[in-house]
Specification:
The complex is a heterodimer. Chain A contains four helices and no strands. Chain A is mostly helical. The radius of gyration of chain A is 22 Å and the shape is flat. By secondary structure, chain B is mostly helical. Chain B has two domains: 2-87, RNA polymerase sigma factor, region 2, helix turn helix motif (Rna Polymerase Sigma Factor, Chain: A, Orthogonal Bundle), CATH 1.10.1740.10; 96-176, Arc Repressor Mutant, subunit A (Orthogonal Bundle). The chains are: A mainly alpha, B mainly alpha. Chain A binds chain B through residues 1, 5-6, 8-27, 29-30, 32-33, 36-37, 72-73, and chain B through 17, 21, 24-25, 28-29, 32-33, 36-37, 40, 42, 45-46, 49-51, 53-54, 57, 94, 96, 99, 102-109, 111-112, 116-117, 120-121, 124, 128, 130, 135-136, 139-142, 167-168, 170-171, 181.
């Protein structure tokens, strides 16, 4: 990819996703923060543990896969 | 004034809710705007602002008042946004429709057709979140690489690499759709 193509891609991206202007939240968020603080902390779902276990196993038995895993993190 | 500010930070570090509210009032707009730049949806940005201050409260004991609250909050907000992006199905966020919800006017480049913009939005939403965030902050929002690096907790060189990889993947995806950028 040369610099001309790179500049063209940047222009397309900026036309697709316009920059965000300075804006404020539409409501007072503090009451919602307080409700969130009062809520019970949730335990990580079982599949998170299963995924972590699977990735650890993969890393132990196939160390060559570690760069691939890091790439997709 | 300085003493008052450091007093608030110290009380926050000890878990004082009033100090947290004081910091929330000072920083909520900045956290909201930062999150909005990443997720580009005001309703989601509000939810992530709430999530960010919840995480901030949970991590109060680890806060070092010498480091400054704003940068710390921004980094936590960035990670909350990354977590949210990772939970989204591919190609769900950053659509043209969501962009239209933003308060900023859509200044479409006349040389870029609606078809190309739609394909670009789709291809961009398929990028890995860490590449997408680096690209949106550095290229779309035109923030200094140093600022993006601080928020992501990586080096400036790593930001440049992520932006380059994002552009390369975006180009590849567009070419596969028959669009030559």
């Amino acid at each position: 990819m040369n610099s001309q193509e790179e500049e063209r891609l940047k222009a397309i991206l900026k036309a697709t996703l316009p920059a965000v202007e300075d804006v404020e939240p539409r409501r007072d968020l503090w009451p919602a923060v307080l409700r969130r603080l009062d809520a019970q902390p949730t335990a990580p779902p079982w599949f998170d543990w299963a995924l972590a276990g699977g990735l650890a196993t993969l890393a132990i038995f196939f160390p060559a896969a570690i760069p691939v895993l890091l790439y997709y993190l | 004034m300085q003493n008052e500010a450091s007093g608030v930070l110290e009380r926050f570090r000890q878990g004082d809710l009033d100090a947290l509210e004081s910091l929330f009032r000072q920083h909520q707009s900045a956290v909201f705007r930062w999150t909005l730049r990443i997720v580009r949806n005001p309703a989601i940005a509000e939810e992530l602002t709430i999530e960010t201050f919840w995480r901030i409260h949970r991590a109060h004991a680890r806060f070092d008042p010498a480091l400054g609250f704003a940068d710390w909050a921004r980094r936590i907000a960035t990670h909350a946004a990354i977590d949210w992006l990772r939970c989204q199905p591919a190609a769900a966020p950053l659509s043209i429709e969501q962009t239209a919800e933003l308060p900023a006017p859509v200044q479409a480049d006349a040389a870029v057709s609606a078809e190309i913009r739609a394909a670009t939005a789709f291809a961009f939403s398929r990028l890995p979140p860490r590449l997408r965030i680096a690209a949106v902050l550095a290229l779309v929002e035109e923030l200094p690489h140093k600022e993006v690096a601080a928020a992501l907790g990586i080096s400036v060189a790593a930001v440049k690499l992520r932006v380059f990889r994002a552009l390369r993947l975006l180009r590849k995806d567009l070419i596969q759709r028959g669009i030559t950028p």
